[in-house]
Amino acid sequence: MGMVLGRITVETPEYEVIQSSNDYEIRKYAPSVLAEVTYDPSQFDGKKDGGFMVLANYIGALGYPQNTKPEKIAMTAPVITKTGGGSEKIAMTAPVVTKEGSGEGEKMVTMQFVLPAKYKKAEEAPKPVDERVVIREEGVRKYGVVKFGGVATEQAVAERVEKLKKSLERDGLKVIGEFLLARYNPPWTLPPLRTNEVMIPIE
């Protein structure tokens, strides 16, 4: 019931708030280990979130874990999706992260789950059975972040990205990459109770 009502009961990535204003937060995220899959959405009937099942199978979210230990890995939040300039990202341990980029005229999508913090190095995480799943490390990074509720439609996200970029530039902060969309709740959560964030990497 908590998931329908928007309560976040899974592990979320560790970060420190460096600065906070009415417009945004500046967060410094700790290093993390990610599981990711890159694919052409047409392989999944055009669904950008099509790689979700591949990653969910790896961690054992839907039954027997498809990794060599085999070890069930706890789900985290948010799911992250990267979009813009030909890219989009989804993140789910929560998070799931999805990144979209163009390769040879086709839009490829990379979806990522942030693995629980107990995995400090890529080699500590169970090895995937499915060769499409890649485990990698991400170092310390900084983001300008805006939180919002409701359904993360393309228009709602685009408006917040534009506003956040302008606020960051106004305050002398340098944007160094495409935005991420972090979604903290499953699709069956009531829309007014959902938590979403737009995250823009900064120097």
Automatic annotation (TrEMBL):
Source species, domain of life: Eukaryota
Pfam families for the chain: SOUL (PF04832)
Sequence similarity: Belongs to the HEBP family.
PANTHER family: HEME-BINDING PROTEIN-RELATED, SOUL HEME-BINDING FAMILY PROTEIN
Name of the protein this chain belongs to: SOUL heme-binding family protein
